From TrEMBL:
Keywords tagged on the record: Glycosyltransferase, Pyridine nucleotide biosynthesis, Transferase
Family stated for the protein in its record: Belongs to the NadC/ModD family.
Enzyme kind, highest EC tier: transferase
Protein name as catalogued: Probable nicotinate-nucleotide pyrophosphorylase [carboxylating]
Length: 285
């Protein structure tokens, strides 16, 4: 998988803030009280369930920002499909520092791997169709770039990153603008030629109106598969088609079979369960 790493300047402030939240003004009281200052050790992260890995760069930063003397060796890469018992990484260094960083490292790694795993499940469900699985803006505040990276690690694609990089006209915009035509016409007059315009429709009548005016992408909201199939026929390749609403691993295949180009899913970022990963001391190290 060709997965472009997250830029360090984007990651470091978030990891520093997470460490500061955990360490506070007094640091790790437990490790300082229990572990000798000169003790060194190794901790190995092991998967307890099947999944897809994402977030190793963030985990490594948690250790090295806590203490530059910490080192992390990776046994797998982001995007790797793993099973229970798979060794993910080994962190070595001063024991106090390793223990102080471990929860922050696991929080990032487990959360992002959970998103990658959920995405991969949907990608498998639509295999053999033209549909790509896309995320949305339903992300954890301030973690959007990381969560969207995890979607890519799971084989999905990214929707817009924010309000600033594309136009998405939804039902409230249409109501406030006075209808589909004025909303689309104002958008065309306002944004530059490099900005894509997408509009949400709930009915086939709305879709036909959109196609008379033109849009780059149409969001087919909460349509059953048979209606989606008819909508794809109406669009006839003149715009990208995106299905949204009621998407689960059980329904994804039928939605994809309608011929849509994209299936957008909010829960893969806002509700995906974490991947269960343990981080344990290696006595032999």
């Amino acid at each position: 998988m060709d997965l472009t790493p997250l830029p360090r300047p984007a990651m470091e402030p978030a990891v520093r803030a997470a460490l500061a939240e955990d360490l506070g003004l007094a640091g790790d009281l437990t490790s300082a009280a229990v572990v000798p200052a000169d003790h060194r050790s190794a901790l190995t992260a092991v998967a307890r369930s099947e999944g897809v890995i994402a977030g190793l760069d963030l985990a490594e930063l948690a250790f090295t920002l806590t203490d530059p003397a910490c080192r992390m060796r990776r046994h797998v890469a982001d995007g790797a499909q793993i099973g229970p018992g798979t060794r993910i990484f080994t962190a070595e260094g001063p024991s106090r520092s390793l223990l102080s960083a471990e929860r922050t490292a696991l929080n990032f790694l487990g959360h992002l791997s959970g998103i990658a795993t959920a995405t991969a499940g949907l990608v498998r469900a639509v295999a053999g169709t033209r549909a790509a699985i896309a995320c949305t803006r339903k992300t954890t505040p301030l973690l959007r770039a990381f969560e969207k990276y995890a979607v890519r690690a799971g084989g999905g694609v990214n929707h817009r990153f924010g309000l600033f990089d594309a136009v998405l006209i939804k039902d409230n915009h249409i109501a406030l603008a006075g209808g589909i035509r004025p909303a689309l016409e104002r958008a065309r007059k306002t944004v530059g030629h490099m900005v894509k315009i997408e509009i949400e429709v709930d009915t086939l009548a709305q879709l036909r109106e959109v196609m008379e005016i033109g849009a780059d992408v149409v969001l087919l909201d909460n349509m059953p598969p048979e209606m989606l199939r008819e909508a794809v026929g109406i669009v006839a390749g003149r715009a990208l088609t995106e299905a949204s609403g009621r998407v689960t691993p059980a329904t994804a295949a039928a939605i994809a079979a309608s011929g849509v180009d994209l299936i957008s899913v909010g829960w893969i970022t806002h509700s995906a369960p974490v991947l269960d990963i343990g981080l344990d001391y290696l006595p032999e190290a």
